[in-house]
Amino acid sequence: MSNRQAEIAKALGVIAPFTSDADVDAEIAKRIAFIKNTLTASRTKVLVLGISGGVDSSAAGRLAQLTVEQLRSETGDQAYRFVAIRLPHNVQHDESDAQAALAFIAADEVLTIDIAPAVSGLAKQIGELGELASARRDFVLGNTKARMRMLAQYTVANARNGLVIGTDHAAEAVMGFFTKFGDGACDLAPLSGLVKGQVRRIAERLGAPAAVFSKVPTADLEDERPGIPDEQVHGVSYDDIDAFLQEKPVSDTAYQAIVQTYDKTQHKRELPLVP
Fold it and tell me: Any one Gene Ontology biological process term (predicted)?
């Protein structure tokens, strides 16, 4: 263990490794209580989350659904609801995975909003995009997709006086693997402090099928590299990232890759700069 590992783990609020199913159950209860308290304190009754088909949104979505079910049972108020939103860009190549996730989550309501027309309409208004190399343009529009998805979620949440849930956790936060003001924007982040393996354990414990909790993670934002695995982008595995965050030994190569990426993406984890 190095001082940087301890420093970064503390900054990201990384929780201790699970040692038993009881640990997982306790963490699930803690996260549901957090969502419940946040919703109650805000005096709102609706939660909104975009569902991609990956384990992060699946776990967060199921926690949200369980929360509103508990609140309805405890208060008798049927206005507490969770809205899951599918946000494909045209036709998602792994739509079957998204549908499996939705079946597991069993949300009160499911909406589908195709973001392609909005992204395309915006792109047509920005001449600079046409001057970019193809790969760079694809990357820029990938971030636009992430921001358009968050815009859609906030529009629905605002219309219903609700809150938007984020899916960020420690293994993504350390790599800055989110779009600023895109999937990095939310009202509450119930997976915060967890590493990837812990998110998988929670999803499995909640009853997710193996196809959901073991799915290869992908942001899937670039048309020229559809479905590219997160780990290929990182250049390091989630097993190594989890080990690093839990202050276990990792290879020098993995250590340097994680620390360098963490330092380079620090701006993503901070509030806007001010004078």
Answer: NAD+ biosynthetic process
Q: Where are the alpha helices (DSSP H) in the chain?
A: 3-11, 21-42, 55-75, 95-105, 116-124, 134-159, 170-173, 196-205, 210-213, 230-234, 238-245, 252-264
Can you tell me the distance from the alpha carbon of 203 to that of 208, in angstroms, rounded to the nearest whole number?
A: 5
Residue 56 known to be catalytic: yes
Active-site annotation holds for 270? no
Question: Annotation-wise, does 73 bind a ligand?
Answer: no
CATH 3.30.930.10 fits 19-230, yes or no: no
Locate tokens 């899916």: which residue? 167
Q: What is the pTM of this model?
A: 0.94
Closest CA to 97 of 226, 237, 216, 200: 216
User: How far apart, in whole angstroms, are the C-alpha atoms of residue 7 and residue 10?
Assistant: 5
Tell me: is residue 13 an annotated ligand-binding position: no
Reported as a single tens digit per residue, the pLDDT across 201-247 is: 999 999 999 999 998 888 778 887 877 888 888 889 999 999 999 99
Q: Is 147 annotated as a binding residue?
A: yes
- Catalytic residue from among 108, 168, 172, 220: 172
DSSP structure string for 36-69:
HHHHHHHT--EEEEE--SSHHHHHHHHHHHHHHH
Is 251 known as a binding-site position? no
For 22-54, the pLDDT digits (tens) are 999 999 999 999 999 999 999 999 999 999 999
CB neighbours (10 Å) of residue 155?
Answer: 13
Beta carbons of 160 and 83 less than 8 angstroms apart: yes
Catalytic residue (one of 56, 97, 240, 242): 56
What b-and-e string marks burial along 8-19, b requiring 16 or more CB atoms within 10 Å of the CB? bbeebebbebbe
